[in-house]
Amino acid sequence: MFQSTVQLALDFLSPESLGESARMAQEIRCLPNDHDAKLNMLEIGKISLYAASSAVREIQRITLDPKFNPNLKFKDQNLTQAVSDNLTRITKERKVSCS
Q1: Mean pLDDT to the nearest integer, 29-35
Q2: pLDDT at position 8
Q3: Are 24 and 42 in contact (CB under 8 A)?
Q4: How far apart are CA 67 and CA 69, in angstroms?
Q5: What angle do CA 66, 71, 72 make, to 5 degrees?
Q6: Amino acid 10: pLDDT
Q7: pTM to 2 decimal places
Q8: Which of 10, 18, 30, 41 could form a disulfide bond with 98, CB atoms 3.0-4.6 angstroms apart?
Q9: Which of 30, 14, 43, 20 is nearest to 96 (CA)?
Q10: How far apart are CA 75 and CA 97, in angstroms?
Q11: CB atoms within 10 A of CB 12
């Protein structure tokens, strides 16, 4: 049934494997609810969005921290909140069509 397998450890997902992982997650979603593989559902979207959010927070921290560069000025103090709001909106459950 599945020709390749991916094991995600410690919520790590490399950018190179994102496409394959998303494809496999879609295949798993189409399995019957009592299938063993469905118990190990890949949360590719959530992992990717969490990584992006973490990167934005780190960039914001570096930009706002005067110890790094006191000459840098950051105008949007609400960037992290905006990212968080978008993550919430994007991660709402979507219907998946299995054909």
Answers
A1: 82
A2: 46
A3: yes
A4: 6
A5: 75
A6: 44
A7: 0.41
A8: 30
A9: 30
A10: 42
A11: 10
